[in-house]
Write a structure and sequence with these properties.
This protein is mainly alpha-helical and 513 residues long. The protein is 67% helix and 5% strand. The protein has 18 helices and 9 strands. The chain has a 4-stranded antiparallel beta sheet. A hairpin with an 8-residue loop joins β1 and β2. The C terminus is likely disordered.
Length: 513
């Protein structure tokens, strides 16, 4: 409460409570559109007031604010105050400006759905879209009286698209983001497809495609940052050369910030291979550029690499490779937990490639547009080429990676039993070989004993035991054992000495004869 009455938020809440359902949605949509228009008007008026040399009055500034709000939705605007006098279309939308109207419509539809308990979500959604389009039509009519006139067909399509998507997400959020049944048309389309594809493959492929798309966008941001740092001197020079007034430089800085999402998507398209079209007849890619048209003096355009491709520019191929590997990793992770076959994993990768390519194509189209006629008629990546390149990278790299990861993760269940069987068979074969060798050795020994009988034995001189002739026995050992040889050497020594003759020693059997 204030001293004069209710504040604006309380008035809006009370109005929603008194008019639930579609009426509350229409009121919220109209308020969201008015807030967006007011924010653009404040920004343009601040820049107009701070400009040292304004060439128009406040009315023209308000017309420009309405045109800027329409541009934020992606609408095409035609400039009539060109130097040549030929109207020039402006279709390149700074994507960061789109965040404000989308968030406002989302919040308005969510609040209206939460306050209208018991009302159908479709009614709230329709009311929010209707209220937003009503204010949008008035803004387009007002902008048509200025120098930047809207294209009515483009305005109608883009305003309706933004309002429908943002209001739908708001109503869905208000109901707790349910995963209920699909709408009738989508449900009938899903019934035509195989049930396994819809219930199992498609959710996994959608998550994998979202992850791959996120990697592509992050890689595009990295490519853009490296380009700005590498061409830092040219970027600073172009920023200073655009305008000499501080208010003008501030406006250029705001425009550059609003175009950062566009530059990120351009970097992703550059890394994918098709590159970016920078005017009619000029395209820039990692393999080099074509054409020689001069680019406008703008900081973000000064960071575009020029000349033929080098290994440094070829290195951007790591971005789509990383995106494809991410898709494969997500698919194999979910497929491995569910026990998918190789065919189902390959199908999921193919579906994810199609979804990623379609999303990248839509983003590429949204990030580009025309800035004029002739040489400025085309700026940004070509949608279908960018989408085809994204899908091709995922199929060419993600499919082998997914199948390899699937084999690697399931190697214990597939290869383990085979290796165990091979090891057991090898052990059995080696055991049989050892038994066969033992049997052959025993047979050879038996045959040798049969062919060579045992030799005759003779009595040992010392013990009298039988000794084989093959055990080193000599016939003279019987008569000349160690003791007899010693006695005979003593006798011979004594006989050779002077004196009485010695008696010869007795042999082993008695005295010598």
């Amino acid at each position: 409460m204030t001293g004069r009455g209710l504040s604006l938020p309380l008035l809006l809440n009370r109005a929603r409570e008194r008019a639930p359902g579609p009426a509350a949605g229409a009121l919220g949509g109209a308020v969201a559109a008015g807030l967006g228009l007011g924010a653009c008007a404040v920004l343009v008026m601040v820049l107009w007031i701070s400009s040292p040399y304004p060439d128009s009055g406040p009315g023209a500034a308000l017309h420009t604010a309405a045109a800027l709000w329409l541009i934020a939705h992606g609408s095409e605007i035609v400039r009539t105050d060109t130097l040549s006098g030929v109207p020039a279309p402006m279709g390149l939308t700074p994507l960061l400006l789109l965040a404000l109207p989308a968030w406002l419509v989302h919040r308005a539809a969510r609040d209206a759905a939460e306050d209208s308990e018991g009302a159908e979500g479709a009614g709230v959604w329709g009311g929010a879209v209707f209220g937003y389009l009503l204010v949008g039509a008035a803004a387009a009519a007002y902008a048509g009286g200025g120098e930047m006139r809207p294209s009515w067909v483009s305005c109608g399509v883009h305003l309706a698209l933004v309002a429908a998507v943002a209001a739908g997400s708001g109503v869905w959020t208000a109901h707790g983001r349910p995963r209920g049944p699909l709408p009738g048309a989508l449900r009938r389309c899903a019934e035509v497809l195989p049930r396994v594809l819809v219930t199992e493959v498609l959710p996994v492929a959608a998550r994998a495609a979202a992850a791959g798309l996120l990697v592509l966008v992050a890689g595009g941001a990295l490519v853009m940052a490296v380009g700005l740092v590498w061409h830092g001197g040219e970027v600073r020079e172009s920023f200073v050369r655009v305008t000499g007034a501080w208010s003008g430089r501030f406006a250029v800085l705001l425009l550059c910030l609003a175009l950062v999402p566009n530059a990120v998507l351009w970097g992703a398209a550059y890394a994918l291979g098709p590159g970016v079209v920078l005017g009619a007849g000029q395209a820039v890619g990692p393999l080099g550029g074509s054409g020689g048209a001069l680019l406008p003096a703008f900081p973000l355009l000064a960071a575009v690499p020029a000349g033929p491709g080098t290994p440094f520019t070829w290195a951007v191929a790591l971005v789509p490779v990383a995106a494809a590997a991410t898709v494969a990793w997500f698919v194999t992770g979910a497929g491995g937990a569910a026990g998918w076959t190789r065919g189902r994993i390959a199908c999921a990768v193919a579906v994810a490639a199609g979804l990623c390519g379609a999303a990248m194509a839509c983003l590429a189209v949204a990030s580009g547009g025309a800035l004029g006629v002739a040489a400025l008629s085309a700026f940004g990546p070509v949608g279908w080429l960018t989408g085809a390149a994204a899908a091709g990278w995922v199929l060419a790299v993600g499919m082998p990676v997914a199948l390899t990861v699937r084999w690697w993760r399931g190697r214990d269940a597939v290869v383990g039993p085979r290796v165990s069987a091979w090891t057991a068979a090898l052990k059995t074969w080696r055991h049989r070989r050892a038994e066969d060798r033992e049997q052959a050795r025993a047979q050879r020994q038996a045959q040798a004993q049969t062919q060579n009988p045992a030799p005759a034995t003779v009595p040992d001189a010392a013990t009298g035991a039988g000794v084989s002739a093959d055990d080193g026995f000599e016939p003279f050992d019987y008569y000349f054992d160690e003791a007899s040889r010693g006695e005979r050497w003593t006798f011979l020594r004594d006989a050779s000495a002077p004196g009485p003759a010695a008696e010869p020693p007795a042999g082993p059997s008695g005295p010598a004869d």
